[in-house]
Amino acid sequence: MEKTIYELDLHESVVINKESGGAMAAVNEKITIVTRVAGGWLYNTSRIDKNANRIGLSESSVFVPYNDEFTPKNNVKVKGGGVVK
């Protein structure tokens, strides 16, 4: 089973979204990777658009501060910030 973003170790990454599709000569690909960093997560999204006339690449990154609002409810917090399952 793949880890949730709350289970990632520092600098560990997980792919949370990967899309590809296209028709005829056009190909579009998009991937979102989340990396655990100090104080939160870094979301990186890359998109590649290819067609007969050009290839385009766009990338974006955003820092998301840590928030335990969506942690799995079966985890119990312990002193020091860890979790016990």
Largest sheet: 4 strands, antiparallel
Structural class: mainly beta
How many E strands? 6
Shape: elongated
Count of alpha/pi helices: 0
Compressed to H and E, one letter per element, the order equals: EEEEEE
Output mean pLDDT.
Answer: 82
Approximate strand percentage: over 45%
Distance between the termini: 15 Å
The percentage helix is under 10%
| Low-confidence runs of at least 5 consecutive residues | none
Sequence of strands across the biggest β-sheet: 1-2-3-4
> What radius of gyration results from the CA coordinates?
17 Å
Written account of the structure:
By secondary structure, the protein is mostly beta strands. Helices cover 0% and strands 54% of the residues. The chain is built from no helices and six strands. It has strands at 13-21, 27-37, 40-50, 55-65, 76-77, 83-84. Strands 1-2-3-4 form a four-stranded antiparallel β-sheet, with no helix packed on it. A two-stranded antiparallel ribbon has the order 5-6. β1 (13-21) and β2 form a beta hairpin. The two termini are 15 Å apart.
Structure summarized in a few sentences:
The chain has 85 residues and is an all-beta fold. The protein contains no helices and 6 strands.
Key features of this structure:
85 residues, 4-stranded antiparallel beta sheet, two-stranded antiparallel ribbon, 6 strands, 54% strand
